[in-house]
Amino acid sequence: IFVKRKAEEQWTYCYGSDDLSGAQLIGVGGGKVVASVRDWNEQVLFLLSGDEGRTWDTLSSDVPLTRVVIGDMGTMFGISCEKVYRFNNSSNEWTEIDAPQIHCPAALYMCRNGSLLLSTGGPTEEDFLVYRSNDGGKTWMVIEALRSVPIQYFQGMQDGSVWAIGNSSLRSDDCGLTWFFDSNGWRRDIATDTDGHTYSVDRNFVYSRDSNPIWEFCYGRDGADFRAIATTPSGVLLAATDVAIFISSDSGATWQSHGKLPDSFLSIEMIALSEDVVIISSPYSDIAVSTDGGRTFTQRSILPIRAIKFLTAISEFTFAAVTNSDQL
Hints:
By secondary structure, this protein is mostly beta strands. About 0% of the residues lie in helices and about 45% in strands. Strands 3-4-5-6 form a four-stranded antiparallel β-sheet, with no helix packed on it. Strands 7-8-9-10 form a four-stranded antiparallel β-sheet, with no helix packed on it. The two termini are about 20 Å apart.
């Protein structure tokens, strides 16, 4: 595990050894970092640092956590594939939250006011539920507006709003109390720039909005078939079609053709790790990588991994993704 405490500093080693592997950061917030590693016999160890990685404590490792959220005061909650947990600081252990109605937790999110949002999945539509808790997980209420809507993850925006993303896109401006469907239908991809403006793409158009719940037309090209959108750290917008990249440096006011994708590459998501490094995923076993800000791309196969989705930038050189492969 490496840490960079200031933008101008270099990445420095802060935890690890030759007999460990598979380090992952599974929760960051409230001055705390939670990570997981595997030891030489594949036992998962959970680690907690409260001092920017200078020291690490081992947490109880008998809970197979898949996601941890941390509040501003350092309160921690986690989910496994079956249950919901709260971390007990006094005993240094994860305590199961008594929520018998909750099955198959899929995504967990903590709003800015401390409320918890939890989505669940299952074999039928009736199993797709989203719960909200206002008391630290003691009680949970089903959000009726999201009933039977498969929610794969929650995305917090700089303006404090929360998106629930799945087969539909919904937004809440009041920490999950009320939700509304995207007024123009489902969006293929969503991005936020450094000023807090939100952008989305859908077929032939790019849309934008501030705090207004109505999407506004931003840019369009007949037959373009926009599929993905991303913002660089400086706020430059990049929109991808099946064959080309378009760029805007003025919050979507004007757009120019910028680059070309590899032949027959099907884009589904895009992230910009820096002003130069841009990565686009596909539903197959390929990704497209650019090191010149999206002007040219190299197609790379990462067999046997397929359906690379939910790209998340971790650093200038590292990103995480979800795949449908059981081999990673």
